[in-house]
UniProtKB/TrEMBL annotation:
InterPro entries: XnlR_reg_dom. The keyword Transmembrane does not apply. This is Xylanolytic transcriptional activator regulatory domain-containing protein. GO terms for molecular function: DNA binding; zinc ion binding. It comes from the Eukaryota. It comes from Beauveria bassiana (White muscardine disease fungus). Keywords: Nucleus. GO terms for biological process: DNA-templated transcription. Transmembrane segments: none annotated. Residues 46-123 form the Xylanolytic transcriptional activator regulatory domain.
């Protein structure tokens, strides 16, 4: 059946359910549809549906455990389903805000006492343990109490770090201390991961989508945090807006409000440190693209992570370096293009992003090729050749009466 027809049927069904039955199952249906709308290339409709979904969930009290205890019928699996519904909506709200930079993460610091979801294996086998709490997650690594956090929990923590970076973005732009504190959150998340969570595999070797997304969020948040201070030449990538408006160039310097301070910052060692953070995060997103799992099985938000990595790599490629650096960055760009091409078989958003990234890559490749040819020409030409060409040009101009 045609994809557009399926979307239309789903929209009609959800609209009807929304008017007739405001309940947790309707919230779940709305969440599935808004993801489909966004990934297919209808971001405005997706955002509008996200707003309505949050309104319904909050009106039902799904951010409190009382919703779960008062729901009928009750079962361990259904209780876990409601916990997952709330936290999935929470993560989606953060992902929309981070990927598109057109909405706010309104659920970020909303009060909630809903327990954290368990591992996928436990959910699938109905071996659901007593849930860890959000306070347990906040006290991790410091509390005497031991709690085995699920991959979903680390994903929640990762999107919370995104929320903190977004909430403190303006302060971090002008206050190095705030900026450093936010980086501590991201680094601490990575350093304190249990060994079993450092890759994206479940206990039986199957892909762990929750940890995949958690790592994706950490790396994209790192780019968003450091991008304005990294002194990247973003001009070549200004045409890439499939996921979000192009980042403003030199935001860090503009916020300083002082030309002298901006000039000094350009030579400050921290600038190269920020560039290293951004480049490393982009390369880590590249590693996620190399996992031996079909990219179409991942969240469509990975498209926006790939686009963000593409912008970083294209900026680095445009800036140029040695031949070895040039080849490495070029292959990273090619990897991003390949990932977008694979995801475009399912997601319209990837098709749009693929066209934009390929166009910019083609332009950068042309400019870099022309530059190398000119450099080689200047190396090969002798001083005598230069004088001869100058004399010939002078004679031509004289003959045409322009000198």
């Amino acid at each position: 059946m045609d994809q557009q027809l399926l979307l239309d049927i789903a929209r009609l069904s959800v609209d009807e359910a929304q008017t007739k039955s405001a309940n947790g199952f309707t919230v779940q249906a709305m969440m599935v549809l808004l993801v489909a709308l966004d990934g297919t290339g209808y971001p405005q409709q997706a955002v509008e549906l996200l707003t309505r979904t949050k309104q319904m969930a909050l009106s039902l009290g799904m951010n409190y455990s009382q919703f779960l205890t008062e729901s009928k019928p009750r079962s361990g699996v259904l209780d876990e389903s409601w916990r997952r519904t709330w936290w999935e909506l929470y993560v989606l709200d953060g992902m929309f805000a981070g990927a598109h930079r057109a909405t706010t993460f309104s659920l970020f610091d909303l009060p909630t006492d809903v327990g954290l979801p368990c591992e996928e294996d436990d959910y699938e086998t109905d071996q659901i343990p007593e849930p860890c709490s959000l306070q347990d997650l906040s006290d991790r690594d410091l509390s005497i109490k031991r709690c085995d956090f699920s991959s979903f929990s680390y994903r929640v923590l990762s999107v919370q770090n995104l929320g903190k970076v977004m909430q403190n973005h303006e302060a971090a732009e002008v206050d190095a201390t705030v900026h450093a504190q936010l980086e501590v959150l991201l680094s601490s998340w990575r350093h304190n991961l249990p060994a079993s969570k450092r890759d994206s595999l479940r206990r039986d070797g199957r892909p762990d989508e929750m940890m995949f997304q958690a790592h994706m969020l950490n790396h994209t948040t790192s780019i968003l945090l450091h991008q304005s201070r990294a002194q990247l030449d973003l001009a070549p990538a200004q045409a890439i807006d499939a996921c979000a408006p192009p980042a403003a160039a030199s935001t860090y310097h503009e916020s300083d409000g002082c030309a002298a301070a901006a000039a000094a910052a350009a030579h400050h060692p921290r600038v190269s440190l920020h560039a290293r953070h951004v480049a490393t995060a982009a390369n880590e997103i590249g590693k996620l693209m190399t996992h031996r799992t079909p990219l179409t099985l991942h969240t469509h938000f990975f498209i926006c992570a790939v686009v963000l990595a593409s912008i970083v790599q294209l900026s680095a490629w445009s800036g140029g370096g040695g031949d070895d650096d040039d080849a490495g960055v070029r292959e990273q760009v090619r990897l991003c293009i390949g990932a977008l091409r694979q995801m475009s078989s399912v997601w319209g958003l990837a098709t749009k992003a693929l066209g934009q990234v390929r166009e910019v890559a083609g332009h950068v490749h042309f400019v870099r090729t022309q530059s190398r040819q000119m450099e080689q020409f200047l190396v090969d030409v002798t001083e005598e050749d230069m004088m001869s060409m100058f004399a010939a040009d002078t004679l031509t101009l004289a003959e045409t009466g322009t000198v």
